[in-house]
Automatic annotation (TrEMBL):
SUPFAM superfamilies: Homeodomain-like. PANTHER family: CARBOHYDRATE DIACID REGULATOR. InterPro entries: CdaR-like_regulators, Homeodomain-like_sf, PucR_C-HTH_dom, PucR_C-HTH_sf. Residues 299-355 form the PucR C-terminal helix-turn-helix domain. It holds the Pfam family HTH_30. It comes from the Bacteria. This is PucR family transcriptional regulator.
């Protein structure tokens, strides 16, 4: 609410109305309930506190220095619930409901409540079907102005499905939940039952298509993580945490990539937990040639080799080079680093060294 409207409210109540920011823990210490929402209020000795917006661990409130009548409290709470979810009065009922759900998700993630189930009070709970595909969309540095909720929702629905839910989380971040029917619709082989690996391939393709759609429409830097189908009413908090971590690890270890898949960052997740000092010392001790990974050709060759499961022929095709040229490059790495990536043990070690080098020497 802007300053003019606050002044109008002060005149109506004949009492000061002061905007205030509180943490969830402060709210609970004042006697408020856990997981407050817009419109929730508490009466202290000297003031009436009411939440105007819940954004993760932060609450935006009004502190009204007066003792209000039950009718005044009811009217103020009603006004906030009608327009407090978003300042825009033009927001649709669906947008208000998704923003309310998004605020609850963000709050639960912040509090580490990974097993929390979507409460019955959320209007959208009956639209969370078993087997929904989760996408996490993070858009930064948009070339044009950020799209409105309705613009982004309309664009995404043209690509995925009319059953898709767009749920705003943090600034520039949205959770997208769509029916798992889109997997069979995207299956070019027409299989009735998709295998595990086929499902992953289709999810990767869908994420790439969504990325092209969003960046083609609004430009800027955009990252997308996608997970396998979930039961959102039970596991939406866990999947949001997983997909956020997946984007974080992808941006940290694989600079330049915009599509991030949870099943491809298991090793990165493990290495990320190692203290930086230990990572740096390990790289320095194990590297035969400290400048080996500064050569872009070497790095691109190794990245392709590992992405092709160490298959020489497939790697050569991916790099558009002759098989003998690839063998020459691998022999060069063996001679300079003392590690043969065609050997399983050495391949594992080089893979770890390459990942660690990217985050310890890129600064």
């Amino acid at each position: 609410m802007n300053k003019t409207k606050l002044q109008q409210l002060e005149q109506l109540l004949n009492a000061p109305v002061v905007p205030k920011v509180m943490s969830n823990s402060e709210w609970e210490r004042e006697g408020g309930k856990k997981h407050p929402e817009a419109g929730d209020a508490i009466q202290s000795k000297n003031a009436y506190l009411i939440v105007t917006r819940a954004n993760g661990a932060e609450l935006q409130c009004w502190e009204i220095a007066a003792t209000l009548t039950p009718l005044e409290k009811q009217l103020i709470g009603w006004a906030i619930q009608q327009g407090g979810v978003r300042s825009s009065s033009g927001a649709s009922d669906l947008e208000r409901q998704t923003r309310r759900l998004g605020e609850w998700i963000q709050q639960s993630v912040t509090n580490g409540e990974w097993r929390a189930e979507v409460p019955d009070r959320m209007e959208l709970r009956n639209r969370l079907f078993d087997g929904m595909v989760p996408f996490l969309l993070l858009c930064e540095q948009l070339e044009d102005k950020e799209p409105s909720y309705s613009e982004l929702e309309k664009t995404i629905r043209t690509f995925i499905s009319d059953e898709t839910l767009l749920i705003p989380l943090r600034e520039h971040e949205w959770l997208i939940l769509s029916s798992d029917r889109l997997l069979t619709e995207a299956d070019t082989d027409g299989d009735e039952v998709l295998g595990h690996e086929e499902t992953k391939e289709i999810l990767s393709t869908l994420a790439e298509g969504l990325h092209q759609l969003v960046t083609g429409e609004w430009g800027g830097e955009c990252h997308i993580a996608v997970g396998e189908p979930i039961v959102p009413a039970e596991s939406v908090i866990r999947i949001v945490g997983t997909l956020r971590e997946t984007i974080f690890l992808g941006r940290k270890f694989h600079v330049g990539m915009q599509i991030h898949l949870p099943w491809l960052v298991h090793l990165e997740r493990l290495l990320s937990g190692i203290p930086e000092q230990v990572r740096s010392r390990f790289v320095e001790e194990m590297m035969g040639r400290p400048d080996l990974f500064t050569d872009s050709e070497t790095v691109s060759t190794l990245d392709a080799f590992f992405s092709m499961d160490c298959n020489v022929s497939e790697t050569a095709k991916k790099l558009f080079i002759h098989r003998n040229t690839l063998l020459y490059r691998l022999d060069k790495i063996k001679n300079e680093a003392g590690l043969d990536v065609r050997s399983f043990n050495d391949a594992v070690l080089v893979r770890i060294l390459l990942l660690l080098y990217k985050v310890t020497k890129r600064k």
